[in-house]
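fold-stage: in
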Amino acid sequence: MLSEETEQISTDFEEIKQHVTHMKELIRVQQDLLKRKKSENTETVELEQIVNEAVQITKGSITRHQIDLIIHSEPLNPIESDRHKILQILVNFISNAKQACEAYEQSERKIFVRCWSSKESKVCIEIEDTGIGIAEKDFLNLFSHGFTTKIDGHGFGLHSCKRLASELGGYIEAESNGIGSGARFRLFLPTNLAESI
């Protein structure tokens, strides 16, 4: 019993460390944005690596809530972009998917993460969940600053994601067939951020 508690504490501590590291990096990125041009933070990035990092950051909470996470990725070429902005968007998407699954009582709780090459020199990362879904009336304000459907939400997450996607030269799409039907969020990114700005 004691060893199980020790193991759980160790797992929780590692998760907190990952969150702190991630938050420190996000703060650094936001501070850099005030001083630098958009293109100065670009580097060659492997999307599969960023997806795996986002999954690791959120994995502990997903596992505790008994949600299955399934990843499928086509082989993708590296792209020129800002890895920390991509990571911030993906962590937000996966966290929202987890909360959507929590809010909807059902036997199957699943989150799907998919990556593929899109048209017009773009790549796509999709996060789909089997959670509560999005009402049609909420789509109009979904990315508006301060809009939220969560009791304890602040309405900053998706608005921030949309802004970051734009800074990356990409865009976000959201789909849902309504309450009880889950939701899909797609991040489309150019293969070369410098050329898209």
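fold-stage: in (second)
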Amino acid sequence: MKIWFDTEFIEDGKTIDLISIGMVREDGATLYMENSECDLSRASGWVRDNVFPNLTGPSFSRREIAHEIIDFAGIDPEFWAYYADYDWVALCQLYGTMMDLPKCWPMFCLDLKQMAHALGNPLLPDQVTGEHNALDDAHWAKASWEFLAKLADANSKSPTPPKAGSQ
């Protein structure tokens, strides 16, 4: 099952502290949770201005979030995110170390930016709902993946031009 997700977080160069996570499954089901254990007093001005206004609550403990994600993702999920590095770390840290991830989960996340780069960096669809709300961003990631998948499919069906000098 493909799952597109996004996180909002506080980071200081040493620590990534999850604020919220939003997920969208390929069947359309969604999950949105905020972390009650996040120390919001450590947020930068940018996070205060751009993320805080988009928090919709309620908040849950990290343990509760981790359990809900296991139920939501199921066995053998395929995770996708845009510029996924910090999002993936924030998600994985809910379980402890990488070795503590649920069984049958990958130890990696697929990255939409890398997919876009491989396809020539096309302009991605506009985000029609609020940026910096993790669930809205996850919906946008799904829409962007669908756009890129269609582009990749169209590119694979176009005839390959002959090499120079071949007839």
